[in-house]
Batch of 4 targets.
Target 1
Amino acid sequence: MTPEEEKKVLASSPVGTWVVMATYGVIFVVTWLAMYGLFLSRGPVH
């Protein structure tokens, strides 16, 4: 990798990191909603 290419890569935004963070965020929200729908919406334990 040339020094020019290295500077270009270091100056660009970390797109892959944002994609991974957004993917995990969506997975956590969907999982939380599924758990809420299955368990928490039924009320306290009897």
Note: The helical segments are 3-11, 15-38.
Target 2
Amino acid sequence: MIGLDSLDRAIVRALVADAQQSAGALGRKLGLSQPATWRRIRKLEDAGILGGRRLRLNAEKLGFGVTVFLGVKLATKGRVSLDDFERAVSAIPEVQQVEHVLGLYDYRLRVVARDLPDFERVLRRRIMTLPGAGEVEANVLLSEERLPGPL
């Protein structure tokens, strides 16, 4: 772990807000030169603090009006390989995120669908037929707010 100074934290906050901004533009905001800003960004990347930049798609505008979080409990613990389940569930395009969790369920999935009948089709024909899939609990997303992180 590396120590972060106030400029490093400011760079991380600025990139979280807008990861597309150039090192020159970011440097001007923070009172740094473009090369100095770029060196700091590279240092943060090399340390694993910055792990790339992601594009956030608007699922609703792409025709996916429903987002559901599924808790999935594996039916046959020890008999089905976690790798097999993860590989199979990751191949379903509607499954946007797969998290192996500790608690009531073994996995938490973020699933998008065009509407509730489409979600039901994905659930019945794709997710419930996965190796080891057992009990599921669905929570439909009503709204989502992006909150700033601890930096």
Note: Helices lie at 6-17, 23-30, 34-46, 82-90, 116-127.
Target 3
Amino acid sequence: MGIIVSKNNDENSRLNQRITADLRERAQKEMRGSDPDLVEDSDYAKDLKKSGNYAWVWAVLVVLAIISLVVIVLI
């Protein structure tokens, strides 16, 4: 009885390994030459621009606003 169960487990593990290898091979074939996260293909990112040269100005304004709020609260 134990030999039959062991033989079935061995056959199942071989089958699982073959299926896993086949699926891995198919996935690698599909991923070649494609964008894995699909960000460039999405519709919402089509017309977006990268931040300009003056994006640092917004960061400075936010920091100044936070400093102003802290000073107002403390006085």
Note: The two ends are 85 Å apart (CA to CA).
Target 4
Amino acid sequence: MDTDVLSSFAKIERLPLLFAVFDQDTLNIAAAVENEVKTGISKGFSFSNDIIALQTQRQIRTYHTSPVDQEFMNSLPQTLEAGERGSMALCKRFAATLVSNERRVMHHCQTNGIHCINLADILRLLWELKIFNPNRCQRNYKQA
């Protein structure tokens, strides 16, 4: 899972939805994603604390890249973020699904035989599995 999607769910305080949609007790992230989350904390992004809390509870596990993963990462464009490259390498090694909302990441996943889904796919799954119904959401709008 890359930082973007993880942070999106943390921002709206809905991280548990990710566990539900994947029917998993744990989520896996690359060490570079963990570093990006910690950088967010140092920049004052309080939602990042929720991600680290789940990590402390062992619901989010961090994986480190191997030398073979590093070789693959070096073959990827440097325009990709470290978290994206690390996530792709780990998903390739473990034949896992990468969750990213970046088109260029999805393109490189397809090129390299890595299964990848995006935020729209997750939202569709949440709706299809009847885990989340956007029609029942209420928004509070401030009066101008």
Note: The domain at 3-133 is CATH 3.40.50.1010 (Rossmann fold).
